[in-house]
Amino acid sequence: MTIIASSIIAREHLAGTAGAVQGINPATGEVLEPVFTFVDENAVDQAAEAAWAAFDTYRATSPEARAAFLELIARNIEQDGERIISRAVQESGLPLGRLTGELGRTANQLRLFAGELRLGAHQEVRINAAQPNRTPAPAPDMRQRQIPLGPVAVFGASNFPLAFSTAGGDTASALAAGCPVIVKAHNAHPGTASLVGQAVSAAVKEAGLPAGVFSQVFGAGSAVGQHLVAHPRIKAVGFTGSQGAGLALMRTAAARPEPIPVYAEMSSINPVVVFPSALSAGMTALATGFVGSLTMGSGQFCTNPGLVFVPANDQGFAAAAGAALQELNGQTMLTPGICESYRQGVSRLAGTPGVSAVSEGQEVAGKNAPAPVLFQTDTATLRSTPDLQEEIFGSAALLVRYNDAADLASALESLQGQLTASVQANDEDAEAARSILPILERKVGRILFNGWPTGVEVNDTIVHGGPFPATSDSRTTSVGSLAIYRFQRPVSYQNVPAALLPEALQDANPWSLPRRIDGALNA
Amino acid sequence: MTIIASSIIAREHLAGTAGAVQGINPATGEVLEPVFTFVDENAVDQAAEAAWAAFDTYRATSPEARAAFLELIARNIEQDGERIISRAVQESGLPLGRLTGELGRTANQLRLFAGELRLGAHQEVRINAAQPNRTPAPAPDMRQRQIPLGPVAVFGASNFPLAFSTAGGDTASALAAGCPVIVKAHNAHPGTASLVGQAVSAAVKEAGLPAGVFSQVFGAGSAVGQHLVAHPRIKAVGFTGSQGAGLALMRTAAARPEPIPVYAEMSSINPVVVFPSALSAGMTALATGFVGSLTMGSGQFCTNPGLVFVPANDQGFAAAAGAALQELNGQTMLTPGICESYRQGVSRLAGTPGVSAVSEGQEVAGKNAPAPVLFQTDTATLRSTPDLQEEIFGSAALLVRYNDAADLASALESLQGQLTASVQANDEDAEAARSILPILERKVGRILFNGWPTGVEVNDTIVHGGPFPATSDSRTTSVGSLAIYRFQRPVSYQNVPAALLPEALQDANPWSLPRRIDGALNA
């Protein structure tokens, strides 16, 4: 495929007149061809009506048909992988190796949901047989399944041009659930979005599905993005990005005549707790591991470790991490704007009373590659300075020195919701670690031991989510097979004649779904 | 137990000075003793802090311990059943038989969740074993379970003083999930709330649980109710009541620094579709069944059938239903205010252009027992008059005459979200019924055939929920075992040492939970 510089509305390419954008190579400043035109609200209306028209047909497809469709998307992306990766490198400044891995992850994510469809547990089929002889009144035949919510709006993310964008986790899980998808392409990687959008669109055709199952629009977020979320045909929203943009979408969704769920993954500083015994036993490895996690991909991960709790008397970890960081060159950030926000965040942190610099790396001039930085403070300052919990997107971290178990617990209690919390502990730290686990459970979506939060497995057990403001809805995840639950709701069928029951609920169980029958699982 | 006319804050009775209320017997106008004093925001703060203090201890209880606690509540309610029912009759005007049944339902609902806890499927345990030899990188040991959200605010409902109030479905499901509960008692049945609240509070003590697991406050909804929903320690809200009150709670919850989920069940007119063949085959029984469902409990059910689609040429059904209705006396409504709202709604409906009266029953003077009413209109009027979709709480219904399948489908598409849709169809109507099923699925939470929507089974398969404005969140139900999912969220545990894993995730599976291990169910 070649890049086609326009929106895709239900398999039709549509140029617009509401502005334009070009990709920019953040490592060189080069403005990339072609020019992508922006569509207006009318195009969003078209996409939304097409999605609505496709909905009943699409949601009636069998698990196997939908799984095969997701696999076609994965295959199409892989077949065009070289071109997609090469364009994504230009548009994002991310290294080839990283994007090669991300493309594989994106394809495997689609296949994970194909597997989920074939397993069918998410359909949550429950059957209670009629009890004609129950007293005082007979019990009806009752059955329950989950049905998809309706067309979903997905917002591509800048930091994962593949895994969280056009055919990323939100799109994969919504399509798996049976929801048509309209993607608002991220303007930082329009060429990548175009290529991947075509891969999805081709799969729609190959699978024989209605054209409205997938659309992708280029436009200004404040115009077409908001219009999309406000559109009556849209029934849920998936978003990964800044807290400001996420909150704006939440407000729009809540103000609709019919409010809809917004799944916004927004900001997290991913606390790490280092316990004394683990620290003495492995100080150098811990410092190296931390700096590697902090600076990987220029720190542009949702799970980047931005806050590290170390014992107050530590000198070694701060010194070793500082020394390792000092050696490092900055890496190109995704866009000049993101780089500028990073600089402002670092400057704000540097000017915060009670915060002092530990170390910084080397800026690489002219490449939007600012220096990674490490600061330190104490728990009292952390507790009294809510601004210290604002995410600085990039390779910036804050060491927080804690005095004792009570001081650590109190500092952890002061934290907002997070995606992850990491614990560095060995056997001798076990009781101290045990005492903070209930706090961490209340604060985060994923707790990990003796590792670093970057590096997100895509499987049945991941939770990439957490309490506000990490996400807008802690009841779910945006990565992993559980994400399909975001786009479903239960429906009950009472005394519906056998001939009219949907396949999922028929006695013969033609889709071989796991079922709860009269209270027994998989009966 | 005797009625204690004060709030219960973590097992302590607390009188207030922020106003007062007394029960009123709507059938007689008698003002009932004693006087219940209202507490202020400080008491809410106390209850919320006590709930928070209890949360970690309570959520760590075993499924068996929590099940036994729910069973104690059920037993305490049944032991005091005679007094509770007698007081509820006085405060609600509902008949003894109805409230006797409702008390049994309330106790059985608590036992349903005890069963859910022992089954354990809602903990959604998933385990992915470590893969130390995976390339390019080893896979960590990962486990996932659901944990409770935190303290829950529950608003008692006027129309079910037992099953949707102090120890009703919201309380039962939140306690089952591991969430402490603070009930805002409904001021229409303060004595009933007091007795049931004491039954719960006694169970907290008998089960040896922290006192903050349960509190109940008396106060003005606009003051303590709003304060409760805005309180930072409250993490979710359960509500059944009017659309206006539900929307106000949704706004408050969305405007918090940390937005929280609100499960508000608000309004539904529960469409019924009568197909021609079913109508000719059983016209009299249909008309009788409809009028029975419409007028039962003075029509004060969330699932009351307020909209009935009949073939345009029907004369028999309207005539038979009208004749049956005309015979009926009005029944006492829950409060004088509800009765007055009903009268206003009927008056608005009577004055709507295109709507004509079919029949009305007999008002019973001086007993807040207004006449049940039946109106009729056509689909064009329904489509062009959104006000016709506003619920009139009580025994008022609107027949809508449809011309053909397309006209019916178009009218159904014009409906807002509903709790239920009922279909009266026999074998000859099967294809017509099939054609509207996808529409009904998109509009409602429960579809039932050849029955009436009043009469809600409390089991694994019920959905008492539906798209907005029937509820604020279609992804769940407020009745049945699935309701426990409202108060949970997933947490992932990565490489957490075996000794620190919660019981639910331990290899030995001490709680015998169903599990998904490496993708296989119940492995």
From TrEMBL, chains A, B:
Please give the organism.
Paeniglutamicibacter cryotolerans
Domain of life of the organism in this record?
A: Bacteria
EC number of the protein? 1.2.1.4
Q: Name the top EC class.
A: oxidoreductase
Matching entries from CDD domains are given as:
ALDH_KGSADH
Q: Name one Pfam family in it.
A: Aldedh
What's the protein name?
Answer: NADP-dependent aldehyde dehydrogenase
Q: Which GO terms describe its molecular function?
A: aldehyde dehydrogenase (NADP+) activity
Q: Which key words tag this protein in UniProt? A: Oxidoreductase
Please name the InterPro entries in this protein's record. Answer: Ald_DH/histidinol_DH, Ald_DH_C, Ald_DH_N, Aldehyde_DH_dom, Aldehyde_DH_Superfamily, ALDH_KGSADH
* The Aldehyde dehydrogenase domain, residue ranges: 20-459
